[in-house]
Each structure stands twice: as C-alpha cells, then as structure tokens.
Amino acid sequence: MFFRSRNLFLRPLWPEDTDGLKAAMGAENFERACSWMNASDAQVAAAQIQHPRLPRCLVTRPDRKGEHIVGVCALLARPDGVYLEIWISPRFRQKGFGREVTRAMVEIARAVGHRDLRASVAADCIAATRALLASGFKAIPDRGPTRSARLRSAIAAEQKYAVALVCHGDGGDQPSFAA
User: Fold this and answer.
1) pTM for the structure as a whole
2) Cross-strand partners of 66
C-alpha cells in the first residue's frame, strides 16, 4: 500500500529499511514501537507478505537530498478490533506529521474495507491524543488489555480511541461505532 500526502510518503516496509529505521528510532524505541515486528529478526519480519488489509508502512519525507525516515505505522489485528500504531521520530515531532500520518492511515483503513479503527495511546501523550481527535477518533471505555505484557508494563495508563469508517443511515448522519 502506497500513500502520498502533502508532505509525506507512506510505503510498505521493506527488509532493507530495518537498519535505517532502527538507527532513526534507537533500539529501545524500535522494540517498543514495533512490537508487532520481531526485533531480533526485523528484516525477516519486514520481508513477510503483508495482509492486504493490514499494511505496515515506512513513513518518509522525500526531498531533493533523498528520503528521510519520519517514522513507521501499521494497522494491526487484535482480539477487539483493528488498531492503528504510529511512531514518529523525535526530530519530526511537533510539526503536524503525526496528524498527517493518522489521517492517511484512516483513509487507508477505509479504502481496504475496515468499518472502524481503534488506537491506544499513553494517557500523558498529548500530541498523539490531539492527532487522533483531529482525525475523528473518540475516546472509548477500556475493555481489557490489547497490548503484550511487555509493552503494557512500559505504559502506565492508556486511553483507547475509535473512529467509524462507514456512516450508517441514508445521509448526513454522524459515523457511529460500538465501544
């Protein structure tokens, strides 16, 4: 899945991207943000055929000097729904890229046929919360764990969000979702 937004280019994560991604993220951030990828063998994980409805994308910012890694994003299947995962490099934060990636992934999720999309964010991560709210997500009640025990222990408190990708009814009504 490829997606070009105003400032960014989202493309599939390829095996040759993993070294650059690890360098951009740092080993600890890579393991935490890419928990869906086996950090010990990231190249093998990146080479695996992706499910067409669950893309994993490298987020880049192309310019005349080449391609700069901004972050990584993915749609992940979990027991309670499809979740959006995004990590943005610290050097690209506070520039609106998180919001741009969130909106792009909402459009991708809609295009591949998902009816709703969820996200789970550390309660103190104000920028991520703002990006989700600006993209139509609404806070939903927590109904149990959605992350691995390793990741849950690293994050003290989370807030879950969801956005409906299909409007129900015959026109003009607001999207609805079940929590």
Assistant:
1) 0.75
2) 63
